[in-house]
Amino acid sequence: MAGSLFRKKSIDKILKDAQSSTEENGQHGLKKILSVKDLTFLGIAAVVGAGVFSTIGTAAADGGPGISLLFVITAVTCGFSALCYAEFASRVPISGSAYTYAYVTFGELIAWIIGWALILEYAIGNIVVAISWSSYFNNLLMDIGIHLPGWLTVDPATAEKAFREVSALQATGVTLDRGQQYVLDAYNTAPILFGGKFFVNIPAFVIVGLITCLTYVGIRESKRSANLMVIFKIAVVLFVIILGAFYVKPGHWSPFMPNGFEGVLKGVSAVFYAYIGFDAISTTAEEAKNPQRDLPRGMIYSLVICTVLYILIALVLTGMVPFDQLRVNDPLAFVFEKVGAEWISKIVSISAVVATTSVLLVFQLGQPRIWMSMSRDGLLPKAFGKVHKKYHTPYFSTIVTGILVAIPSLFMQSSRMTDLTSIGTLFAFVLVSGGVLLLPKIDEGFDTRPKGGFRLPYVNGQFIVPVLVAVFIFLFRTRIVHAAENLGSDSLQEILFLAFVLVAVVMGILTFIKKYSLIPVLGVLFCSYLLIEIPAISWIWFFVWMSVGLIIYFLYGYRNSNLAKY
What we know:
Layout: H1 2-5, H2 11-25, H3 36-47, H4 50-63, H5 67-91, H6 97-105, H7 108-143, H8 156-171, H9 178-189, E1 192-193, E2 196-197, H10 202-217, H11 219-245, H12 260-265, H13 268-275, H14 291-320, H15 331-338, H16 342-376, H17 395-411, H18 417-438, H19 464-475, H20 477-485, H21 492-514, H22 518-532, H23 536-560
Antiparallel strand pairs: 1-2
């Protein structure tokens, strides 16, 4: 059984299966219409969203101006993974993203695990984005004088918590602002159902429904919508950076890391969440005109552009107001209100709505295509792989994704979802980076990739990686000793840290022996380290999620896998 759990699909077989699926659908297969510009725009559409308009505030409040360094570190980490994704995309130009890549290198069980983890990145992650969209949209409506009933715009847990906080503040005699009064009125006017206050987030539900309809109708319509939204929000971000620079006070940048590097690292989850999405480009491989050339370029271009924008935004935000005031849900609008430029905050609010809409669009495109690939392999029912005869989209998967996101967004609280989404994504990045090391080597004379196709440069890590691991162990020797001495009583966070040290040592030894390429090894190590910085409670929920996925695999996927027939 152990051997069958790790049965692999060869690259040739994956390409043949995709071709067979296309022939089965005939002229109703997926349309190849995406250029490198479209793919780059899809990447930017997925990356510049809730992160830059929301979570960056919390990260800046913890790390101060030094958060700009964390954007660099995270970008480098994502860059290593992006190069590994690019190598896979040029070798395996098929929809499915990290799931398909894991099937080639690690085998079926790991492929299923990563496919299940990707649901956290795309479908579950979109619940967070939908809730953020609802908040931005409601603020925008209030700015123009439209007031929806408060109990129709928030989940029950958030409403209860906000009401308690505002009530405690009111008891001190403080005059409530517009937002605080809104919270109070929303709670007091909420209807009673089954003995309790009833709250539901209707705007989040509606936007997911509309986006699902758009992705159902076709990739061409989705592409055009994404391109328009990207042009608008990039223009706004550049406008904010340029105008905000005139309000910057350099004194706010000192001290640069007020809470030390540990304070900067507290923002790992929030900052990394801002980068989630560039890998969604790889799910559209079968709709790209020249996937082996354009997919890698789209991923790398979008990552570079977004990194530059993020660093500039972080410096402008922390330069306009003291960093400790940025722990707010809408930091970009907040800083302009603080400096007396309220009219700019209105433009930012509009852009936030557009930005989060584009993220919803790209993620709702990505998840169905991963399920389509899993269905082709027999790990999910055939319905998930069906392509619509008129619209040329995986219509059943699109509907299921819409339901999976829309229903929970009505009632679910988003706070823990950000960490879970980051874990799922980083987990995928680790396996993609490690998978490159297991890809079969291609002799120069037999490389069938088209001219201009991406080729991951080989840099011998034989001595570099062991030295880097040794330096890390020296710098963190005190923490390692403490965690080892208290292994039985230490927190899960410290156990995860020791696990990372073990992984680093093993990778250092293997790299020295086998002369592994430096870039994928660094991708594994950097992403693994970011993983252990995510709070332990989120890991517990991640393990629960993975357990549910394994149950589904052994009840259905293992028995129905196409490879089980051979």
